[in-house]
Amino acid sequence: MDPCDSDGLEAARAQLVSYSARLLDDGLAVGSAGNISVRLGDLVAITPSGVGYAEMRPEDICLVTADGTEPDGAGPDGTEPDGAQTRETPSSETPMHLAIYAATKAGAVVHTHSPEVIALSAGRQELPAIHYAITGLGGPVRVAPYVRFGSDGLAAAAVEALDGRSAVILRNHGAVTYGRDMAQAYDRALLLEWLARTYRLALCYGEPAILSAAELDEVAAEARRRRYGERRTGREQGRP
Hints:
Structural class: alpha+beta
């Protein structure tokens, strides 16, 4: 892919700006906290460091290669080839995004600073199966140990806790979800926050009942059989 002249890149940049605004609207982040990215072949488009979501523009979105370097295409003065403006700096959590792409088949990654999961991370080792919808994240969500933001150690901790899951909670920090595309990754971030809130509310009534591994396996099997959550036409469902 040519990073400087691509319809796919333009669409990805616009999508990242749109979903960044949703982070604010949905209460999953404040200011410029958190970060999101999409995979574009051998490149990753990621939100910039220090740019508030409310002010972010498509041209602010950064591109990095698998090793974290910015691809060729900028002039020696740091401008795009047309000299339009100086490029922004990629998110400080770029190492974590790249580590997740390297370890999974993710097409998009969403890192939030959502309050329910941060609160849970301070007092629990995992988010248990309070509702069967957690099967959409692979099962109970682990809380990775605290490691400083932007570090290779945090990237490694996140990848380890993501084994067999599509979501991880970062202790005293936030959460990360991934999916085949941005829509799925973002929906999983919303689901994770909803599950954390539901668990907190359940604790208000005493010790909550938690679904067992066998019960979750049964749910996952039935969801696959029914293609649960997939939109199907009447013809696909056997209707005339």
